[in-house]
Design a protein that fits this description.
InterPro entries: Reg_factor_effector_dom_sf, SOUL_heme-bd. This is SOUL heme-binding family protein. It comes from Dioscorea zingiberensis. There is one protein chain. This protein has 171 residues and is α+β, with helices and mostly antiparallel strands. It has 2 domains: 77 residues, Alpha-Beta Barrel (Multidrug-efflux Transporter 1 Regulator Bmrr, Chain A), CATH 3.20.80.10; 79 residues, no CATH class. Helix content is 22%, strand content 20%. The chain is built from 3 helices and 6 strands. The protein has a 6-stranded antiparallel β-sheet, covered by helices on one side. The radius of gyration is 16 Å and the shape is globular. The chain starts with a strand and ends in a 16-residue tail after the last strand.
């Protein structure tokens, strides 16, 4: 399930998008179904989609397998959208701490971009995907130590050996 936001702040978009998704899993859907929380919570940066060509964001939450074939319809006021993902290839950089836009996310995305520019996949990172990068957060905000986050960058699977769509599995 996804919560799009044209807010110009990663931190605010993540907070507000997650709040809408949390309401949905707590029963703010047409079935009044409670849905088990899954991880990660994924915030994707969509370049030039926000006001004045700034970035916009999409906050996503995976639905448990039980609800994937027939997810409860969210209440309209939540402005959530069902997002079905086809298999795709990503490259990942793991980092710890809290995922704040200016202090961690941008720096970690830059580190991943630098690492990729020196790798055999450098020409696969210019993929025409919709996201510049995504931040995956795996822990509750109440966990202060041992936090796990990742920055994800989409790769063009046709340019990465072993990553062709026919060879990728979704779990």
């Amino acid at each position: 399930m996804s919560a799009p936001s044209d807010d110009i702040s990663f931190d605010k978009a993540t907070k507000l998008g997650f709040h809408r998704l949390f309401q949905y899993i707590q029963g703010a859907n047409l079935n009044s179904s409670r849905i088990r929380m899954t991880t990660p919570v994924l915030t994707s940066v969509v370049p030039d989609a926000g006001p004045l060509h700034s970035s916009a964001y999409v906050v996503r939450l995976y639905l448990p397998v039980k609800f994937q074939s027939s997810p409860p319809v969210p209440l309209p006021e939540l402005k959530l959208h069902l997002a079905e993902w086809a298999p795709w290839c990503i490259t990942v950089r793991k980092f710890s701490g809290f995922a704040f836009e200016t202090t961690t996310c941008v720096k970690e995305a830059q580190k991943l971009a630098l690492s990729l520019s020196r790798s055999p996949w450098a020409d696969a990172t210019g993929f025409n995907g919709t996201n510049a990068y995504s931040i995956a957060q795996y822990n509750s905000p109440f966990r202060f130590i041992g936090r796990i986050n990742e920055v994800w960058v989409d790769l063009d699977g046709s340019k990465v050996k072993g990553c062709e769509s026919s060879l990728v599995d979704v779990f």
